[in-house]
Amino acid sequence: MTVAKVKRKMWAVLGVVLALTLLLSSVVGAAKLVEADLIVHGGKIYTGAEGKPVVEAIAVKDGKVLAIGTTGEIMRYGGRNTRRIELKGNTVIPGLIDAHVHFSSLGTRLLQVDCYWKPKEEIIAAIAKAVAEAKPGEWIQGRGFNQAVWDPPVWPTKEELDAVSPNNPVYIGRYCGHAAWVNSKALEIAGITKDTPDPPNGAFLRDEKGEPTGILLEEGAMNAVRKHIPPFTEEQLRKGLILANNECLSVGLTGVHDAGASKKDIELVKDLYEQGKLKIRIYQMVRGPSESVDYFLAHGPEIGLYDNRYTIRSVKMSLDGALGARGCAMLEPFSDWPD
Fold it and tell me: What is the CATH code for 95-111+232-339?
């Protein structure tokens, strides 16, 4: 056999070995693909990833993105236990994060009369319904009114609440949290009359005769009534937190920044995380100045609790009032409230 034939056979053998090696490598590589827990495919998925801002499919493992790409590429991560969701052309976006919520307040609000962005007449009708279902003397609470979107955009009065709730005290917080609307019964319980001076850090809106109209501006005035309202029970607070969790998730929020909570609030949140009843991620601010702030300053931040779902490492303090409630300090009078 000539040298040339030997060389040709050697190259042929090497070629076969190389081909087998590549084939085995591809098989082994395929075998090493991690099986996804979830595959979402067949739609438009916005990833924000450089080079692949929009893809057809995504694979998820242990709650984290495993791979993104075409449906064909991602289906390779499927296995016997993989859950598959066919989008049928629908769109998926990353989870949204709200940078300013009051999580526990959202929960208790969901237990009360919903007044958010509703006409005054609709709010009064909802309060009348709540009164009909309440016990005699039971407080009726709500949150969310905004007179600025009404026609005309003027403050409501206690008389409008008295018409549907003469005997049950009513406390309705403005959407901003810096004002409240109450009825005559609530003012009576709080002992607020024409002769009651405005408290520090607050004011009672008055008519031309000096009588309180039922509008309480800022913390000082709101607390004068609010301190007479029985606190929510722990059972109600827990229920509210779970409702808040479900409400946020239902509108696409997967994370929130909770702008101010007490140590008690935080303990309840932790307990619900430990029970697996909260799924949303929360970046927690502690409301101050308070004993709660003192406690967490002494103990330090808590980061990435409950599978990186809960972090406590900031403080919220309010230095002034709000524009909408006319409670903030201005260099000149408000154009629509010169006094």
Answer: 3.20.20.140
pLDDT of residue 317 exceeding 60:
yes
Whether 259 and 102 have beta carbons less than 8 Å apart is answered as: yes
Structure tokens at 195: 């002769």
CATH topology of domain 3-93: Urease, subunit C; domain 1 (2.30.40)
List Cβ<8 Å contacts ≥24 apart for 316-319.
Answer: 316/259, 316/260, 316/285, 316/286, 316/287, 316/288, 317/288, 317/289
Which segments of the chain does DSSP mark as H helices, in order? Answer: 3-31, 71-75, 103-109, 120-133, 158-162, 184-190, 218-226, 234-250, 263-274, 291-299, 305-308
Write the pLDDT tens digit of every residue in 28-66. 444 468 999 999 999 999 998 899 999 999 999 998 999
- Model-level pTM? 0.69
> What's the pLDDT score for residue 324?
73
Asked whether the beta carbons of 313 and 319 are under 8 A apart, the reply is: no
Q: What are the φ/ψ torsions at residue 54 (nearest 5 degrees)? A: -135, 130
What pLDDT was estimated at residue 8? 61
**pLDDT tens per residue across span 256-295:** 999 999 999 999 999 999 999 999 999 999 999 899 999 9
Contact 169, 214 (CB under 8 A): no
CATH of segment(s) 113-226:
3.10.310.70
171: its two tokens: 């406390």
Task: Name which of 17-26, 138-147, 255-264 the model is least confident about.
Answer: 17-26
Domain boundaries of the chain, sorted by first residue: 3-93, 95-111+232-339, 113-226
The DSSP string of 174-207 is ETTSSEEEE-HHHHHHHT--TTPPPPTT-EEEE-
* CA gyration radius, the chain: 30
Residue of 165, 182, 163 whose CA lies nearest to 173:
182
Cα(285)–Cα(273) distance, integer angstroms = 17
